[in-house]
């Protein structure tokens, strides 16, 4: 059944190859060219196809005729096409027949296995099973095989999913680790570049300051040079003037010297002030930058530490949640398994208890039925024995002897068939009963002889004495059958007979008893003793069985109690372990909080001790890196959760759909194969008919197109004539309406004039009419 799709695909490939061969073959020059417009050719081919179909339907046995007609039909094509057609047809037919044979053999084998009697009917009867129950409980092996295949497939898919999930997790972890390394390296490079840029900026600022200082020095030197030039130029003044203005020059020199001193002092002071100002501003700027960097470093390290702490807590919570999820899943699985086992155990215990009680009820029911039957037989035997005693007391023992024996035999026969040991005892007792009957008959004959001899001389009490030994004999007969319902009732019958025949035994005690009767009485006593011993043994056995059953029941109850106590102890242990885990968790949380506080204090002390730029930079870079890693880790976890859930859902839905599709495909495949084969045969017949119809349609459509063309030309001509006629008719109608319109206008004018006249007349008669009309 499962190989059918492969066979179908192979047959399709072969048909495709054969069609390709048909298209790629060269035409045979010897054969006449096929004319599709030739209708006679198609008529011949359709006739031959119809003859072939009729031969297949009505003369299936005449294989030579069908082959000949099929050969005539296929002769219309090339021999290569015939060979390809025969190959494809035979392959498809053989494949279909092989599939059908395989399916039929498998179905027959399964039906044979289903209907095969594994156990004999005698064993089934001993076990108390019926055929209907067997049929009800009989299972189809195909369903079990399908379920096993499904379970194997589900387990395989589950294992593949687990492996795929582990592989994806490994790859994700590896990629995250590599990305983290790459980010760390990038952050280090970026930090190094930033440090280099800051150093370059500081060096640029220092260069600027140096340039400013040099420029100021140059300006001061130029001022000094100018002064020197002035001093050099001043002595070149003519001597006349010098002699005339000597005091004036001295005063000017003094003034110049003082001015120079003042200028020098002023320059020195300004230089000092500028230098101090620059120094003050530079130190303030440097201090500000350092404070700003320290604050940034502190804030960065604090944020990094907080971020690290947050990431650590998130990671710890995540791992804890994963661990708790795994633990809860394991506990759920364990509880589910325990619940399932508990349910199975309870169901099995319930079934066992029901079966036990049912068997006990059946046994009790049988015992009750036997008791009722025994009570009925006891009543019957009691009645019969009373009748026998009455008959014996009245002297009618000989007439009722045979009937009493037959009644005793019927009473024994009415009992349920005992077991094998009891049957042997009953047979022995029957033999003894027959012997006793013979002895009783002999005694009766002797009694009759004695009565005949003593008929004249004997009195009525003597006849009563003779009747009493017969009663004793019947008492012995009543005590013959041990372990039987009659024997069990022997004591009651003897008591009743003693109560009835008590006053009649007094005269018999004077006579000597017969030795045979003594022996019978002794045997009856022995049998009664034996029956009593057997009854005591049975009672003891039943008591022992009851004691064993009670002990087993008590043992079972003890086991159940022990199991319940063990379960309770297990639950208590689990609760205790949960409490211990919770306490450990609380201790761990407290310990972590303490460690966190200690770490925070230590961290603050280290920060207070070390305030350099490099550690702050490293911490800042580390914080940026950790932030980036945490963001990426968060995004990756979110993606993993969403994608994993989506992937699992898609895989489950795909598996369900694939299973449904496979089942549906396996159901439909057989129908399709048979239908496709039949359709292929029908299509071969339909192709001939379609080709004939096609070429007939071509001719018909050509004739129809010519006719339509002519009809179009005629319709165009008629349309032109109709248009001209409609134009003429429209003009004629227009003129007619125009004439009518002129007459209508004249009539309307006349009507209007009449209305005006009427209005005037009314206005003359009614003066308010004009105002009404105006209104």
Word description of this protein:
The longest helix is centred in the C-terminal third of the chain and has 153 residues, at 613-765. The chain has helices at residues 4-24, 39-58, 63-74, 79-115, 121-127, 131-137, 141-233, 239-244, 246-394, 401-413, 420-453, 460-478, 485-488, 490-501, 515-609, 613-765, 768-774. It is mainly α. It is flat. The two termini are 103 Å apart. Among the domains are: 360-534, no CATH class; 535-611; 615-769, no CATH class.
Give keywords.
775 residues; disordered C terminus; disordered N terminus; flat; mainly alpha
Topology record:
Blueprint: H1 4-24, H2 39-58, H3 63-74, H4 79-115, H5 121-127, H6 131-137, H7 141-233, H8 239-244, H9 246-394, H10 401-413, H11 420-453, H12 460-478, H13 485-488, H14 490-501, H15 515-609, H16 613-765, H17 768-774
